Amino acid sequence: MAIEKKVQVIQRETIRPSSPTPHHLSTFKLSLLDQFSPDMYVPLILFYPPNDSNGVLHGLDHLLTFAEKTQHLKKTLSQTLNKFYPFAGRITNTRLLKQLLGKAGPKCEEAGIGHLLLVQATLFQCGGMAIGVSISHKVADAATLLTFLKSWSLHCCVENDHEYHPQFGAASLLPPTDLTIYSDPPIIQTLRGEKCITSRFVFEAENIEVLQRKSASEIVKLPTRVEAVTALIWKSAMDAYMISSNKATFLLNRAANIRPRTAPPLPENFAGNLFAVVSTMLNNNESTDLQVLVAKLRTGLEDFKKYFPKELDVGEVKRALEGLCQFMIKDDEFELFGCSSWCRFPFYDIDFGWGKPAWATNCPLAFKNSIIMMDTPTPDGGGGIEVCLTLEEEEMALVQSNQELLALRL
């Protein structure tokens, strides 16, 4: 029997930058990739265990009360927003964005009035604490969220003098375009499900090794952890759809960080949306064998690396985005999946002054067929993988009874 959890809201507050934003920075331009990013939040929750020690860590008393911790978080967040000033603003042309992309993301009052960053600190009866962060995908991807959390946590650790500065300049590399020329409603409507359920699947390192051996072939002799788990999850979801629907084609879109792929490479703290979409297609008359799927995933990634425009040609990127949007409108012809791997992103190193998190996880997304992967809390970050999978009810029931999946999950 599920135990009902009650959360009492103690206070709501708007945190502003501790210093006024200079006038020449009062308007921030979105880049081309920002414009085409979904109107949704990128969520993350960090869970911190209670501190029992009487010692001092990073200059902060372990036994600070919750009120003292939250005051410290608010003060340092305000200081951090001086550097991340766009996150303290609001999107002005929301009417046009809704027309183009539809409204998605968490159903909360703040989401409807344009706040770009939401933060919640929660205290548990055991003394543990959770810090939840949701940032608008219009201004940030997962790498930018990590950069923000690194900077904020460094501000919190009062003995740490060096700072972690973001670089804003994506709009100069990929200038925005006029969105009013688009009349067809693109991606987001395709991804919104009627009755979606999010399930969490955890794969231990030992089971992933079994999966890697099982999915190896002459084409891909050593699949990566992410390739093997992606193939299993996608296979399980496709098998469910083959039972419940008559879709002829399945398309998996994976997000790929382009910062290290440009010439010269962009620094990891380059803020904004800097990802490309790697697409893999499978017809329903093709095999869903794990070896076949891993080979398709690897081929798609290798093709992306080969043909990606390292010079970031604006016209070429724009044409690719337009083509992707037009293709996704045809949702009656195929079933679309979106996959993002946050593995190897060091979210488990985010220390606000009272230790590292015991668990980092995504919140459920509002989109069907979404697959989000993160490392499990292991010392080297190379162990298990946690998957948050969102499907509609009928398909999720079939996935949860998939014996191949159940044999390998925790």
UniProtKB/TrEMBL annotation:
Coiled coil: none annotated. Keywords: Acyltransferase, Transferase. The keyword Transferase applies. InterPro entries: CAT-like_dom_sf (IPR023213). One of its GO terms (molecular function) is acyltransferase activity. The keyword Glycoprotein does not apply. PANTHER family: F21J9.9 (PTHR31623), HXXXD-TYPE ACYL-TRANSFERASE FAMILY PROTEIN (PTHR31623:SF122). Belongs to the plant acyltransferase family. This is BAHD acyltransferase. It comes from Rhamnella rubrinervis.
